[in-house]
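Render this sequence as a predicted structure.
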Amino acid sequence: MTTILGLTGSIGMGKSTTAQMFRDAGIPVWDADAAVHALYAPTGPAPKLFHATFPGSVGPDGHVDRAYLRTLIAKDPGVLDQINAIIHPLVAQVRADFLKRHNGLVVLDVPLLFETGLEARCDKVAVVSVDAKTQKARVLARGTMTDEDFDAILSRQVPDAEKRRKADYIIDTSTIDVAQDAVNSIIAELT
């Protein structure tokens, strides 16, 4: 029997670090972001589909050009629905293949779990969370986005407070030790 734990959290909350804790404990983890990256790669199915819909969206290296897609979305937010219509079925297939290969406790690491309704496919949901000041500091310390970029991403995500209300488990990521204790407790309960 498979128990599906959805793992989610807003940007900068520590979800990737927490997902690695589950991996380190031997729990299979499916990473939605990694699945999308693989689908966007030259060997994946997405470049051909994106090129057909959005000429110019595939770079010279054969990867889907995410920066180009962001530019299209900025000009016409409706483009995001077209992008999702292409990528979501591909991601769903990769996820289904992962679930067929594993039994016992598995983790679906999905940043937009609630936004996509995927929590309905999970037996339990864990939300990683930290205070807003720490969250923003973590994101801006990466040096890859501005305050405006950060705010734009947050505006498209379900607010942390709402995620926490919907969660079966809240994993406080203020320190590695606190997060690890929560992960250990969840694993003990679900295995």
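Summary. The mean pLDDT is 94. Strands lie at 2-8, 29-31, 104-109, 124-129, 169-172.
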